[in-house]
Amino acid sequence: MFTDETLDALGVESLWRKSQQFAQESRGCQTWPVHTAEAEIQLLLNADNGTQTDPQDHLLYQLPFKGEFRPESPGLRDFLHRVEDIVVKELANNAKSHAFDGFDVNWEDPNETVSCIHCLQHPSAQEKGLQVTSISWSCTGSVIACAFGRVDDGDWSTEKSCVCTWNLDRRGLNPKRPDTVIDVARPVMSLSFHPSQPSLIAGGLYSGEVVVWDTNRTQDLILAQTGMSTDTHREPVYQVAWVPGPRRGEMVVLSAGSGGRVLLWTVDSDEGRLVLSAGFALVRQQVPHNSALSKNRGSSNVGVTSLALSPWDLDTFLVGSESGLVLKCSFSAQTLAAAPPDGESVTLRAPAQFSFSPRGGPVHSLHCSPFHRNLFVSVGTDGLAHLHSLLQPDPLLSLRVSDSYVFGVRWSPTRPLLFAAATGQGLVQIFDLGRKSLRPAATLDQLTGGQPVYCLEFNPRRKDLLAVGNADGSVNIWHLSTELTEQGPRETAKLEQLANEVAE
Amino acid sequence: RPDVIQPGYEPGTVVTDAVPQTTAPLGSPSEAEVEETLKRIQTHKGVIGTIVVNAEGIPIRTTLDNSTTVQYAGLLHQLTMKARSTVRDIDPQNDLTFLRIRSKKHEIMVAPDKEYLLIVIQNPSE
């Protein structure tokens, strides 16, 4: 009935799947044969070439006739032969000739009178009764800065004061309103403009600090200051000046105070600090030839009241002290100062090399002559102006300036024989050493009612302006006559003669 | 390969004579005469300085310092040319023979020539 059966497998053809292989045709193509050829080249001749020039120095420093290599100039000998006679004849004639004696040319109208052209005041400083302690002209000669403080106050002063500047060349000059007023917390005793940057002013304060202001700034005018550190002066700074620094073109600030210290500060404008770079201490024991004064008891420091830099010798400077000493000092002195170290960061050196004959009272002002390397003039409380030569201790000449103290003296920058002195009676006496008489050539009355004149400065650019600072807080600008500013013939020779006289 | 680099020179540098002039030995007679003449002029009474300038305005002998010499040479060379042209403009047959400038402090004398200029500065009142 039931049996096992095996059936064949059944297959179904796919309807949609086809073979992917289509009909295939093969073709080929071929280009024409490509022509190729081979060629070679090779350099038969090669050469190397190069040029080089030496750096061409400016003609100024390389004149060809100095040194071994002298270019022969053909015909130079013959040329000199031809002209020698005529030149020598003219030279001889000229030396004997009187043709030009007394012949003067008027290039400009001569100014016969001396007049006060401006009277600059700062009313708020005058109300407080502040006096002008120091004035300075900028290097351009258009801006005058004056420092207010007190000179007659014996006590330690914490009064606020200011530094004012006026630009005289501005059209809208208002003598009662300064262009810039810098408020300072202490009285300012000395001021000095930078010799080449017209916006920097260095000032020395009553507290012993030294500050450099930059009048270009709008906000805080202080560029750098010493602050109250162990390096600063402990006593009022009576003199500041700018001197060339160790690097070319750099100027450092020199400050001298009645503590007997003369310090050199470098300006660090990034930090706003003045960094002490060198220092000198004047100690009585180290002053040469000082037998007369060693009997005094008291402080061994020699307080500096005035300082003068020599324009001829950058190493020399003169110092005038409170006790009447006038000393010649050197920046490169190496002997160490005998002052006890007070925490300063540099070792102090003793700069004094030579001592001139001492005076009876403080030496208020010194100035080196810009026309003779050995002459300087000093004034003090004895009312006399002493003309000294650097080579000898006694003065060459002593002129009576006034019956009271003399606070300032300056040589004229244009006339070798002229200097001006500021007296305690409110007068500026101008002396001409070429005159036979010892009386002043001109007297400028400051019209301050007899109040002293503390400082005076000639304008470095405009030779006929003189600025005078008074105790009543005003600065007078005087316009000098041609006679006081024009150099006469043979003045330098007369000055030379004066300097060579030996004092009896 | 031909070697064109001459012996004795570094490859890459060429030495050229910048100033094509011959040197006059210092001891030669013409040089000594020049020195003597200039010395005679210099030691004359009141003479401050003596400068010899060539036709291009370059100083070739001087007794003053470099910067003053260059200043005098440049300025006076120009002034002498101007003076000469002034004289010749007025009269073309005329020519400049001598130039003297008198100032407050001293007198400058210029002796001109085709190739050179002699400048002498004298202080007549000494």
TrEMBL record, chain A:
It is found in: Cytoplasm. One of its GO terms (biological process) is carbohydrate metabolic process. InterPro entries: Dynein_IC, Glyco_hydro_18_chit_AS, WD40/YVTN_repeat-like_dom_sf, WD40_repeat_dom_sf, WD40_rpt. Keywords: Cytoplasm, Repeat, WD repeat. SUPFAM superfamilies: WD40 repeat-like (SSF50978). Gene3D superfamilies: YVTN repeat-like/Quinoprotein amine dehydrogenase. Its main location: cytoplasm. It comes from the Eukaryota. GO terms for molecular function: dynein heavy chain binding; dynein light chain binding; hydrolase activity, hydrolyzing O-glycosyl compounds. GO terms for cellular component: ciliary plasm; cytoplasmic dynein complex. WD repeats lie at residues 453-482. PANTHER family: CYTOPLASMIC DYNEIN 2 INTERMEDIATE CHAIN 2 (PTHR12442:SF26), DYNEIN INTERMEDIATE CHAIN (PTHR12442). This is Dynein 2 intermediate chain 2. It comes from Hucho hucho (huchen).
From TrEMBL, chain B:
Residues 34-122 form the Roadblock/LAMTOR2 domain. It is found in: Cytoplasm, Cytoskeleton. One of its GO terms (cellular component) is microtubule. It comes from the Eukaryota. The keyword Secreted does not apply. The keyword Cytoplasm applies. Keywords: Cytoplasm, Cytoskeleton, Microtubule, Motor protein, Transport. Its main location: cytoplasm. Belongs to the GAMAD family. Acts as one of several non-catalytic accessory components of the cytoplasmic dynein 1 complex that are thought to be involved in linking dynein to cargos and to adapter proteins that regulate dynein function. Cytoplasmic dynein 1 acts as a motor for the intracellular retrograde motility of vesicles and organelles along microtubules. This is Dynein light chain roadblock-type 2. The lineage of its organism: Eukaryota, Metazoa, Chordata, Craniata, Vertebrata.
